[in-house]
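Schema walkthrough. Field components (list of strings):
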Amino acid sequence: MWAPDPVARARELSDAALAGDRRALARLLTAVEDRSTIAEAALRTLYPLAGRAHLVGITGAPGAGKSTLVAAMIGELRSRGRSVAVVAVDPSSPITGGALLGDRVRMQAYASDLDVFIRSMAARGHAGGLAATSATAAAVLDACGFDLVLLETVGTGQSEVEVAATADTTVVLEAPEMGDEVQAIKAGLLEVADIVVVNKADRPGAQRTASQLRAMLVAVARVGATPDPRPRPKQPEVLVTTATTGEGVVELIASLDRHRAALVAAAVGGSVSAARLTRAAAQVRAILAERVWSQLDSPERRAATNDILQAVAAHELDPFAAVERLVKSLPR
Amino acid sequence: MTDRPIKVLIAKPGLDGHDRGAKVLARGLRDEGFEVVYTGLRQTPEMVATAALQEDVDVVGLSILSGAHMTLVPRVCRLLADTGLDDVLVVVGGIIPDDDAAALRATGVSGTFGPGTTIGEVAEFLRANVRPRD
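Field assembly_structure (string):
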């Protein structure tokens, strides 16, 4: 089955994956993760077919219950006959490059269901909560016809907001008593939430945390409700769930559907939603940066590039001047 | 695809609840630079095969301490073969008597590791035996 020509191999894999072959899909996702030429060739076919799935980002602190909530969401979505793919990202070791991908532990109940596809990804050194290739992986799953693609980030802190540029709808998970009202008015992760979920509602303080979040997030957004061209914070819905029992998950799915419907309505007239334009820009920018860097790091330029880096390290050259020189060294 | 990390599934099929060894190995292989998917306790052979397929792993590592290896391992191997995953390396850890180890090898298992095996030995074995991919 091995075809040496990447274009032929890409066609073979994408044709099979589009026809429902899960092994071919898994192979394609590996090609995406490895940034191989096969993946690049396959995307020529697959990317135009993507854009139909609802991409939902699930983010929040380690242990907030992201994987358990994803498992509960899969159950609820499947009971409505919707197909679900999951991309679950866990961190890579900055020292060895190894990773322990443990999100699947909570999601193993769907092994015999062909309309559920779960893929773990190591972040491979990419900061921001996702792997560099997560958005592309989501596009491949989207093209293969999954109704929803859930992107579960690594356990995040306050500023890993990349998922918001990748997903249509961003769900930020909080645990009860994770902080006071001042935490809720800090900039960052909570600001990019379309939906805030206070999970572990069976623990004391969940309702109180939810009311505090509602008060701070919603009230702040309303202050600037006058017409104003500046970007305004979102006004997220604040929900309460117990992922282990599934309580509140029906409401979460309803909230996701409302947000999706609003996006679709907003996109009528304009051709694409602002969120999708942001996503396109982020993806193209990332690939562009990578391409430029790989040129500078090519065997014929590596020595010259290293000289400039050495000069910066030795404080003989400032980083801005270094970039100017590097950009000039690129072929026109 | 030379410096791609080797992706390993560590699973505990069957009903025994002793997962310390599996967790130590998962952590140890992480430190050896592997990408380790850990699926936890009480996995059915179907769960193991589905996870191996969706994750596109290079290696399936099964940890069994219950004595049920002669029932569970051949089932996992057969399911893997049925789904076209015959290029995945299957290894087993636990209490496996020598006679059983030989029999398991005949069903598609590449290596068995008993008590006293070091993480380094497992890592070395996997690096040496993992099958090349396109």
